[in-house]
Amino acid sequence: MTFNDTFLKACLKQEVDHVPVWYMRQAGRYQAEYREIRKKHTLLDICKIPELCAEVTTLPVQQLGVDAAILFSDIMVPLGPMGVKYDIIEKRGPVLETPYRTAADIASLRPIQPEEDLSYVLETIRILARELKVPLIGFTGAPFTLASYMVEGGPSRNYIRTKQLMYCHPEEWTQLMEKLGDMVVTYLKAQVEAGAKAVQIFDSWVGALTADDYVKYVYPTMKRIFEELKDLQAPKIYFGGVSSGELLPLFKELDTEVIGLDWRVPISEGRRRIGDRFAVQGNLDPTLLLAPWPILEQKAKDIIDQGIEKPGFVFNLGHGIFPEVPGDMLKRLTDFVHEYSQSVLKNR
Ligand code: CP3
To answer: What local confidence, expressed as pLDDT, does residue 348 receive?
Structure first.
């Protein structure tokens, strides 16, 4: 089997013969095999055993026939070596022993040294780079989204403590953003050096901010991250996360190749907001995977039709797969994206 580079071509807005597709959380609890593995290992154990982690990463590629693999890990993993003590609790998410709220807390955060601190991640990537026939996507959380867990101490609805730090202690906030920004740059460079062919920065919760606050409190760090990653030999995807539609025009100045959209903004409208410089990725509402096939098919078709209006489109969900999703629906959707897009593109 030859290497399938369709996903990379789409990220770079090159010509493709079908629309590439992968899914956020394509490895996870909707898979019986994953649930079996999780009976014996915690999520963080899996991340630390390279052979097993590579197997979990590869499973959805084999089962679904997606055009890219995403490294199995969690956005919290690189925070460990910075000094953050956390756990990941089932059905809840990341939880910290003690939240980071004071100048001293933030000053205590250490820079990461991936070859020493995160060697298991890099080893997993090396295995996958040798074995996969599709590109491997490396990833990290973005500073705001990581900070939200660190400051709240766990998942949050209103990000009250996070915004409080931002508004009341802007210097400490900036320190925190900058330290996380340094981690993002160092970590992604190490992942690409180990063999990741693309990277995604997850800013899942930044849509909680107004555009003004994004500009003031988040944008400077994001701008710097992308500047420092300018020479990275891999396309970069910035996923602005849930409800980030109002922020899209601000992403225009970021030096990234691909912008991920959630399901609230149609693909064409998303392109209108960010301009034609970027490839776009998205954006089926993951809940539609629980709908009857004709409804799912119609929505997927609509997204593909808009996606292929211009070069540079990667099919994905607007957010991660839920554990309730039936695997055969995902397989059917993947086949549909491939077949339908291929037939449209061929007849152009
Ligand atoms: O297949 C993949 O997408 C790769 C693996 C991956 C995981 N987490 C594994 C995981 C990725 C890319 C992430 C990123 C991540 N982690 C994000 C950004 C993406 C997003 O969804 O917005 C965030 C916000 C987190 C934090 C986190 N970790 C949450 C909110 C949860 C869910 C809690 C739950 O139980 O529902 C986790 C746990 C987690 N990370 C699971 C998986 C597969 C859940 C399954 C398990 O506990 O085994």
So the answer is: 86
- Which element (helix H / strand E) includes 54? helix 50-64
Residue whose CA is closest, atom 40 of ligand 1? 74
pLDDT for residue 134:
98
AA letter at 13: K
* Mean pLDDT score of the chain: 97
Position 197: which residue type? K
The answer to pTM > 0.85 is: yes
| Cα maximum dimension of the chain | 62
Residue whose Cα lies nearest atom 29 of ligand 1: it is 93
Contact call for residues 58 and 31 (beta carbons, < 8 A): no
Residues within a 6 A CB radius of ligand 1: 24-29, 38, 43, 70, 72-75, 88, 90-94, 139, 202, 204, 320
Asked if the bond preceding 316 is cis, omega within 30° of 0, the reply is: no
User: What tens digit of pLDDT does each residue of 213-252 get?
Assistant: 999 999 999 999 999 999 999 999 999 999 999 999 999 9
Helix (H) or strand (E) holding 50: helix 50-64
Q: Which residues contact 214 (CB under 8 A, 6 or more apart)?
A: 206, 247, 250
Question: What share of residues in the chain are helix, strand, coil (percent, to 5)?
Answer: 55, 10, 35
